[in-house]
Amino acid sequence: MRLMVHFARSYPWQTLMMLVALMAAGIFEGVGLTALLPLLQIAVDTNTAAGLTSGSRSGETMLNVLAFMGVQPSVESLLVIIMTGVLLKSALVLLANKKVGYTVAHVATDLRLTLLRSLLNARWEYFLNQRVGSLANAAASEVMRASNAYLFGATAAAFFIQAIVYSLVALTINWQATCAALAAALLVLMMLNWLVRMTNRAGSKQTRLLQSLLARLTDSLHSVKPLKAMGRENLADALLQSDTHKLNKALRKQVFSKAALKGVQEPILTLLVVIGLYLSLVSWKIELPTVMVLTFLLVRVLVQLSKVQRQYQEMQGCESAYWSLQEKICGAEAEKEVSTGTRDLHLETQLRLENIHFSYGEIPILAGLSLDILAGTFTAIVGPSGAGKTTLVDLVTGLLRPQQGKVLLDGVSLEDIDLMTWRRQIGYVPQDIMLLHDSIRTNITLGDDSLTDHDVEDALRAAGVWDFVNALPEGIYNTVGERGTKISGGQRQRIAIARALAHRPRLLILDEATSALDPESERAICRTMHELRGQLTLLSISHRPALVEAADQVYLLEGGRVVEVSSPPNLAEPYGEDPKRGIEVPTP
Ligand SMILES: Nc1ncnc2c1ncn2[C@@H]1O[C@H](COP(=O)(O)OP(=O)(O)O)[C@@H](O)[C@H]1O
Ligand SMILES: [Mg+2]
Hints:
The chain has 20 helices and ten strands. The protein has 588 residues and is of the alpha/beta class. It is elongated, with a radius of gyration of 36 Å.
């Protein structure tokens, strides 16, 4: 029920309109149904319509209304009333169903967008603890199941309203028999509620297992190459099998509980009808037309109530997906990245890291690190693996925040700068390059329509990969395969460098970005970097001699601090000066 209240609060208008349409439909149907008893009596009674007694209060009202309107109660007029009631009801139910259908689509779209937005706006550290497969599962299967929960809940409400209408009409005909039937039906439904609870438990298990399965599956698929190359794909298979078996068990339980509920409901409710008929005809001796109409109405009540329970059961099977999604959305929203600053600065003079302390949890990584990077220069950072070089880059881009110390851009703390405008000035080539499974062009432009084919070509040329791309059958429109696996590691790195350059950054960060390049290609990149000096600031993390030699200054990072600074005498001047002065460019 909590779910329905949640839905009604999130979509108040849609839910209200649906309920109003259903209630109006119920009223029209009720009006049509009240004409049933007088109709049967006319048909059974040999007397004329003038001597007609309605046999129920609603029937009497119907006859009075007809008399007031000057309409003679006849088979024809009553049939017209019944037909009109049914037609109006059908039209309104159609309207309500349409509304429900639209709302279900709306719920799915809203959930998906909210989830994606909250995930994308979350802090970088939040992502480090997430499993991609589980998030993909949330955006696909959990969203579908959650929106279906709304559909099942709304359908249950529709059936319930119909059951109420039939019950009300039945009450006016014979309240004792109706109350007895309702009490018996509710008792039966309550007794069968354990099957609903079973579906709920199986649904929760399904939600948990799907998350785990998809997370494992994505993990295994990401590392399928080494697994296959070492003949260890059965390891992934074994891992997945256990989850798949458990999932299969949960699904079977769900199937069983649904089938059992449907299978048991029908005979028990039929038994109720049989007992009711016997009591009405033999013990209570109610007249035949009344029994016929009562049976017609109460059978419908029972059928609708059993449908309510079945829809409720379906909803219970999906409910956990909705809560799991809500948990993810709330979790990501609580970890929202807040940009405290508003200033719009461009790297004009200097990027400074001042007494930075940073630790992941309890483990200190940087302890009192300070360094300066002059605008327009080429800085290289070297240090042993695990020294904190990538962490340092993440602090510069603002993906991580220091626990102590400041990152200063032209003397202004990153805390006071609008993070989005700062990041848009950065070209970043990460250590682990993942290209999009798309064309080379899209991988370069990242959807930025202002970049032309010409810009793409320039960027590819600057990264020294144009000849390779141009020779491909579809040129820049060639796709690169899943995560770029259809091209070599070195080509991937150069395409990533081209991507960073195409967006004309003020600061270009290369994190071990030439590790897969042959010496000649690396020298070519160094030449490009050298030419770019002065137009932009370069920060390169590398052990490669060529890049280190080409740098204006080299910082050695060790023990969480900068322990050595080598500043070649040929330091390039900041923007506006001749960038070609001094440095020795390695020649191929
Ligand atoms: N998200 C993280 N959580 C905990 N420890 C991390 C995390 N990322 C990196 N580390 C640890 O921090 C240290 C520095 O990592 P990193 O900056 O990537 O080093 P590198 O200098 O090789 O680029 C390493 O010991 C690494 O294991
Ligand atoms: Mg690193």
